[in-house]
Design brief:
Helix 10 runs antiparallel to helix 11. The chain has two domains: 132 residues; 149 residues. By secondary structure, it is mainly alpha-helical. It is built from eleven helices and no strands.
Length: 287
C-alpha cells in the first residue's frame, strides 16, 4: 500500500473523529444545559458518539505511525508508537481518551454525578484539540484558550441539532418544541458572536497576511469554510426569526420548515468538519 493510501485513510479517520468527539462533547453539553429535555439527546446516541470517538482516536493514533513508515508495519511498530507517545500527538491522545472515558462513565452515573462527569469529560475532550496542530504552532496560552472557546461553542451548537430535530419532528408537542428552540436561540444569540470573534482572531493569527486567503490553498479552504459557516448562520437566523415564531403561533408548518432547516444545518456541519480535517491534515500551513 502506498503512502497516499495511509494519508487518505488518516483523513477519513479524522473526519469521523471530529464527528464523534464534537458530537459527543456537544451532546454532553446539551444534556447538561437542557437537562429537563435531556431525553431528546438520547443516551443511545450519546453512547454511540463516544464509542465512535474512542475508535477513531485509537485508529488515528495508529495511522500516524503507518503514515510515517509508509506501510502497514507502522500500525504495530511499538518503537514508532513510543516515539509518538513522547510528542504532542501522544499528549493529545492521552488527554482525549481520558475525557472520552469520563463521558462513557457518565452514562452509568446518577443525575448529579452524570452532570459533573459530562462537563468535565467534555471539557477535557475539547481541550485535547488545543494540544496539537494549529494551537501548538501558535504556541501561546491565549490562542489555546481561544481554540477551546471556539471548539466549545461549536460543539454546543452541533450537539443541539439532533435534539432540536427530534423536537421539531414530533417527539414533543408543538409548543414544547417551540419553547426548546426559542431557549436554544437565545443562548445561541450570545454564543454565536463569541464563536465568530474567536474564529476571526484565530484566522488573523494563523494567516501571515490577508493576501494568503486567496493566494494559498490553506487560505482558499479556510475561505470555503467561512462560506459554509455563513450559510449555517443564515439557516439559524431563519429558524429564529421565521420558523420558531410560526411554531409559537401554533402553526404546524413552522415545525416542518424548522426540521428541514436543521437537516440542512447538519449537512453544512458535516461539510465544515470535512474541510477542517483537510485544513489540519493535507494542506500546507502558510508561512
Amino acid at each position: 500500500m502506498t503512502l497516499g493510501f495511509w494519508i487518505v485513510l488518516s483523513l477519513i479517520t479524522k473526519i469521523v473523529l471530529y464527528i464523534g468527539t464534537i458530537g459527543a462533547a456537544g451532546t454532553a453539553l446539551f444534556r447538561v444545559i437542557f437537562s429537563d429535555v435531556a431525553h431528546l439527546a438520547s443516551k443511545r446516541l450519546f453512547g454511540w458518539l463516544v464509542f465512535t470517538a474512542i475508535c477513531a482516536t485509537f485508529l488515528g493514533y495508529a495511522l500516524r505511525s503507518a503514515t510515517l513508515t509508509g506501510d502497514s508495519s507502522g500500525l504495530t511498530d511499538m518503537e514508532m508508537h513510543l516515539l509518538l507517545w513522547d510528542t504532542a500527538v501522544g499528549t493529545s491522545f492521552t488527554t482525549r481518551m481520558i475525557g472520552l472515558f469520563i463521558l462513557l462513565l457518565s452514562l452509568l452515573m446518577k443525575r448529579s454525578g452524570a452532570i459533573i462527569a459530562m462537563l468535565i469529560g467534555a471539557a477535557i475532550v475539547l481541550w485535547s484539540f488545543t494540544q496539537i496542530g494549529h494551537a501548538t504552532e501558535l504556541g501561546t496560552w491565549f490562542t489555546s484558550i481561544l481554540f477551546f472557546i471556539h471548539f466549545a461553542t461549536a460543539a454546543f451548537w452541533v450537539g443541539a441539532l439532533v435534539p432540536l430535530l427530534r423536537a421539531a419532528n414530533g417527539n414533543t408537542t408543538l409548543q414544547q418544541a417551540a419553547d426548546i428552540a426559542d431557549r436554544f436561540g437565545r443562548k445561541a444569540a450570545v454564543l454565536v458572536p463569541i464563536l465568530i470573534a474567536a474564529g476571526l482572531v484565530l484566522a488573523w493569527n494563523l494567516l501571515p497576511d490577508i493576501a494568503s486567503i486567496w493566494t494559498t490553498a490553506y487560505g482558499r479552504l479556510l475561505l470555503l469554510k467561512i462560506v459554509f459557516v455563513a450559510g449555517l448562520l443564515g439557516l439559524a437566523a431563519a429558524n429564529k426569526l421565521r420558523f420558531v415564531p410560526a411554531m409559537e403561533r401554533g402553526d404546524p408548518a413552522g415545525a416542518l420548515h424548522l426540521a428541514k432547516s436543521i437537516k440542512w444545518e447538519i449537512c453544512a456541519v458535516l461539510v465544515i468538519l470535512t474541510i477542517t480535517a483537510f485544513l489540519t491534515s493535507t494542506v500546507t500551513f502558510p508561512e
